[in-house]
Amino acid sequence: MKYSKEDKPERAGGAGAGSRAVPVALVVVVLCAFSFYLGGIYSTGRSLLDSIQPAPTALLALGAATTTRRPSDDGQARPALASTAAVAFPECPADYQDYTPCTDPKRWRRYGNYRLSFMERHCPPPPDRQQCLVPPPKGYKPPIRWPKSKDQCWYRNVPYDWINSQKSNQHWLVKEGDRFRFPGGGTMFPNGVGAYVDLMQGLVPGMRDGTVRTALDTGCGVASWGGDLLGRGILTVSLAPRDNHEAQVQFALERGIPAILGIISTQRLPFPSAAFDMAHCSRCLIPWTEFGSLYLLEIHRVLRPGGFWVLSGPPVNYENRWHGWNTTAQAQKADLDRLKKMLASMCFKLYSMKGDIAVWQKSADACYDKLTPVTTPAKCDDSVDPDAAWYVPMRSCVTAPSPKYRKLGLNATPKWPQRLSVAPERISVVPGSSAAAFKQDDARWKLRAKHYKTLLPALGSDKIRNVMDMNTVYGGFAGSLIKDPVWVMNVVSSYGPNSLGVVYDRGLIGVNHDWCEAFSTYPRTYDLLHLDGLFTAESHRCEMKYVLLEMDRILRPTGYAIIRESTYFLDSVAPIAKGMRWSCEKHSSENKADKDKILVCQKKLWAGKQ
Question: TM segments (predicted)?
Answer without folding.
Answer: 21-42
